[in-house]
Amino acid sequence: MRLFKRAAALQAYLRYQSEQGATIGFVPTMGALHEGHFELLRHSMKDNTLTVCSIFVNPTQFNDMRDLAHYPRMPEKDIAALARLGCEVLFMPFESEIYPEGLDAPPPQVALMGLDQTMEGIHRPGHFKGVVQVVHRLLQIVQPHRLYMGQKDYQQYRIVQHMVEQLALPVQVAMVPIVRQADGLALSSRNLRLSPKARAAAPRIYQVLKEVLAYVSRHPDADLAQLSQKAMDQLNAPPLKPEYFSIVNGTTLQPVRHLNEAESVVACTAVWAEDVRLIDNMILKWPQPIHATE
């Protein structure tokens, strides 16, 4: 595995590989890698001749500096794991490589059409502005053929997909399904911070999502607003405290009342497990099977 810390050196290497006919897959991460990240990388390595993983804890997408300070960092462990997996290239840039003009560098001009004004956008103001800024910059540097993102951060996936469409960037955005632990908890770097009590309660999030899916499968005309409120009530039991449970149009991210209102419908939730904030989702309706490179 090749490790790069400077954008220019990485670009020179990737330019050479592209000239030799290589297809490039890209998996951007903030480190503290787990099986969910590895699944993204496996999809990329299967679909492309060369895969780039980046590790960069992006300060502009944290609206709470305490969250940034507590974000897990384990570079030595991450490097070893990527090498074992067979990832070809790791990009671990200095902050000045991503933001040569400083953290106040202007983000790309993208009209997000309200995609950032719901769910996570309400509770984490400025978060998606930072996501768009850093992903756009990383795509400028890596110039991949395919970008791989996890379903767990569905709103982030949809906003990045929208950015790529708006700017007509020459990259295919692939969504990879959620990877879960045996008890259903979605894999996340934040899981490392869960207390034993919170960890024992956290699988309830997935259980409620499954119950919602089972209910709408039996009752396709169900009132989804009422179903969302019921799910909130079910999740509201210490040490869990739900922040939102929204059933939305998978394209616009706006709430829907019935399944027939949209081609794709996704149930999304954010739940505090003591002092750790967990997000998860369940696809309730999708126009075709989900594949990594659709």
Please characterize this protein's 3D structure.
The chain is an alpha/beta fold and 294 residues long. The chain folds into two domains: 2-176, 3-Layer(aba) Sandwich (Rossmann fold); 189-285, 2-Layer Sandwich (Pantoate--beta-alanine Ligase, Chain: A,domain 2), CATH 3.30.1300.10. Helix content is 38%, strand content 19%. It contains eleven helices and nine strands. It has helices at 7-19, 35-47, 65-70, 75-85, 95-98, 120-123, 127-142, 154-166, 196-201, 204-218, 224-235; strands at residues 2-4, 24-29, 50-55, 89-91, 146-150, 172-176, 240-249, 265-273, 276-285. The strands form two sheets. It has a six-stranded parallel beta sheet with strand order 1-4-3-2-5-6, sandwiched between helices. The protein has a three-stranded antiparallel beta sheet with strand order 7-8-9. α7 (127-142) crosses α8 (154-166) and α10 (204-218) packs antiparallel against α11 (224-235). It starts with a strand and ends in a 9-residue tail after the last strand.
Properties at a glance:
294 residues, alpha/beta, Rossmann fold, Pantoate--beta-alanine Ligase, Chain: A,domain 2, 2 domains, three-stranded antiparallel β-sheet, 11 helices, 19% strand, globular
The appropriate CATH architecture of the largest domain is 3-Layer(aba) Sandwich
CATH hierarchy, class of the largest domain = Alpha Beta
Order of helices and strands: EHEHEHHEHHHEHEHHHEEE
Strand order of the largest sheet: 1-4-3-2-5-6
How would the global form be characterised?
globular
How many structural domains? Answer: 2
CATH homologous superfamily designation of the largest domain: HUPs
Structural class: alpha/beta
Beta-strand portion reads 15-25%
In which range does the helix fraction lie? Answer: 25-40%
How many β-strand stretches? 9
Termini gap = 28 Å
Which regions have little confidence, pLDDT < 50, spanning 5+ residues?
none
The total count of helices amounts to 11
Instruction: Tell me the Rg in angstroms.
Output: 19 Å
